[in-house]
Structure prediction request, 272 residues.
Amino acid sequence: MKKYYDILGLKGGDDAKEIEKKYKLLSKEFGGDNLDDDLKDFFKKEYDKVQESYKVIMISIEKEGQNNKKTEEHTEKLEEEITKLKEEVNLLKDTYHILVNNTGGPAAGPIADANTQSFEDAFRMHLINNQILVQKVVEGMKKEGFGRIVNIISTSVKAPIPGLGVSNTIRAAVANWAKTLSIEIGAYGITVNNVLPGFTDTNRLKTLITKKASVQGKTEEEIANTMKSSVPANRFGQAYETANAVAFLCSPAASYINGINLPVDGGRTASL
Prediction:
């Protein structure tokens, strides 16, 4: 892009009017009729360069404007959703003793390929929403002297999972948010813990298997068997097994368990 700005004698960052003004001046300079044939050929080549540069820059500016508009619209939509959540949360009048935060994971893909909007969206969906809900219920839990907050996140907080760049990043943020919260409110009889599901037989896992199979040129069965072979239990987990762990952490029996990450992964996670 820089070479096109150089041809027009621009520094970059110029607005459309300035670019058009420069283009017209150069077009007039290179498009004169009172020139001999050799000069006309030379100036025609230069004029073509100017014209190409103008088109490239203007197309770039137009695309940037469209992208900015899409980003603004997307951000406005997310802000509306957060506002709606806050309004719904404000309708909660009773005291709540248990809060389970569970949000679907971001789309798979390498972290280097992810755009910044993906990170912002996931941060809002996972951490901001958790914060809104906690702020609504925590005062009631303090008054009661009892509270259980459980966040269902991912084993990626212990060891990043290949191909889940955005998810690995945001899950770690939620885990640290939860640990900080557990320290701050533990004295009120409130525990904050994270459950880390491993490969669990859900629609999300099926989607990840399908994507891996497509990228690696293998069958879904081959991918599934490879994944199972990495689990000491040699199978995928079931949703109820994750639910059992959550139910225990929410019970009085787990009153002295606070600020931990509990893998429910069949022993797959290599770290302690």
About this structure: The CA atoms of residues 26 and 50 lie 7 Å apart. Residues 32-40 have pLDDT under 50 and may be disordered.
